[in-house]
Amino acid sequence: MSTNSFGLECAHCASSDLSGTKIDDTIEVVCQACGHQWLRTPADVCRYCGSTDVETTSRDTTKWYAAQEETWTAEEIVRHCRKCRRSSQETRWLDPVYGYWSREDFAAMTVVELREQALNWGLDATAMHKKELIQMLVIESANEIWTRAQLERMPTAELRKLANSFDVTTKGRPISHLVNQILKKQQDGE
C-alpha cells in the first residue's frame, strides 16, 4: 500500500489514509481505515533553512523564588542545524501550580522571555522595551479576566491549556469554539 505525503502508514492495517490533530508538542494521528490512534512527535525543523537534519538538546533548570516560596522550572532547548550550521534556542517556563508572578520574576527575565510570556497571554508586546513589558505583565498577572482579542492572539497550545483549566473540551474543537467557551465561562463566573 502506498504511503501518504508524510511517509507514514498505520501500524495495524498499513493504510496511508491518516489524519492528524496537533496537541501541544505532539500530533494525534488517527487511521481513517481502522480507527487506530497514536501520538507522534514531529521532527525538528531548522527555522532558518527548513532542513530536518537537526540535533536537539535540552536541559531542565530550576529557580527558587524565596519571596513566593516556589520553585520554577524551565526547559532550555537548543536546536543545531547540521546543514546550515545555525542554532536556535528556546526556553519554556513551566508555571507553578499556584501563585502570581511578581515584578521580581519579570525583572529576572530577558526581553525575549518577557515577549514570549506576553505572547502566551495573548498580549501585543511588539516594540516594547523591558520596563514597559514588565509593567504590562505585572498588571496582567493580577488580571483574571481574558478578553476576546487576547484569547485570539494566544498560541494554540496556550489557549488549549487555558481552556482545559476552564473544563472546556479541546479535542477536535476549533479555536473560535474555545474562545467562545472561555468567554462564556468567565461571564458565568466559573
Measured distance between first and last alpha carbons? 50 Å
Strand count, sense and closure of the main sheet? 3 strands, antiparallel
Q: Uncertain regions: pLDDT < 50 for 5+ in a row?
A: none
What is the tally of beta strands? 6
Strand content: 25-35%
Radius of gyration: 20 Å
Order of helices and strands: EEEEEEHHHHHH
The backbone outline, from C-alpha atoms, is globular
Strand order of the largest sheet: 1-2-3
Q: What is the overall pLDDT average?
A: 80
- Level of helix content? 25-40%
Treating each run of at least 4 consecutive H or I residues as one helix, how many helices? 6
- Structural class determined from secondary elements: alpha+beta
Kindly summarize this structure in a few lines.
This protein is an alpha+beta fold. 30% of the residues lie in helices and 25% in strands.
What would you note in describing this structure?
With 190 residues, this protein is α+β, with helices and mostly antiparallel strands. Among the domains are: 42 residues, no CATH class; 57 residues. The chain contains 6 helices and 6 strands. The strands form 2 sheets. It has a 3-stranded antiparallel β-sheet, with no helix packed on it. The protein has a 3-stranded antiparallel β-sheet with strand order 4-5-6, with no helix packed on it. It is globular. The termini are far apart. The relative contact order is 0.09.
